[in-house]
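One-letter codes give the sequence; the fold follows as tokens. An example follows:
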Amino acid sequence: MKRLVLASGSPRRREILRQFGVEFEIIESGIYEKISSESIPPCEIAVSAARHKVRNVLERIGFPAVVVGADTIVVVDGEVMGKPEDDLKAREMLTKLSGREHEVITGIAVADSVSGTELVDYQTTRVRMKSISPARIKKYVDTGEPLDKAGAYAIQGRAAVFVDSISGCYFNVVGLPVTKLDELLRAVGMDLLL
């Protein structure tokens, strides 16, 4: 029997999967999510990172499994934002997002260790932020919440007060687009609906 493995240390991705009541294991990939400076489309950056995470975990497991990997980035004016390295970078990112619309792209990869099947896709959601004063940005950054989030904010956390609207999948912005995940899992014989 194949086991479901999440190649991510993200507590948000774990929580999303737990909502479906599926049994899964967590094996972190150890892949550092570095944003490439190469001029490749942002969706390819996210998909490539997700694929690398899955392949890293596949190399280390010795049991039949379906491995899921994901990587989320934020894009504004063609600039790709990953996770901020520090408070200063978090404030810079939030300042760029303030009062504007941006895209959240999550690349997703699913691989079956038995059949060798590897599937990839991505989801894009548009998010419009309200104008955020520098004082509120600092107050939010001081909570520490932005430091492990793409684009320096958590829509499911305190940053919800900054979000004016979203167009697309909410779970994508959190970090795991469930509709895409379900499609890919069903293609390898698993189903989020037990």
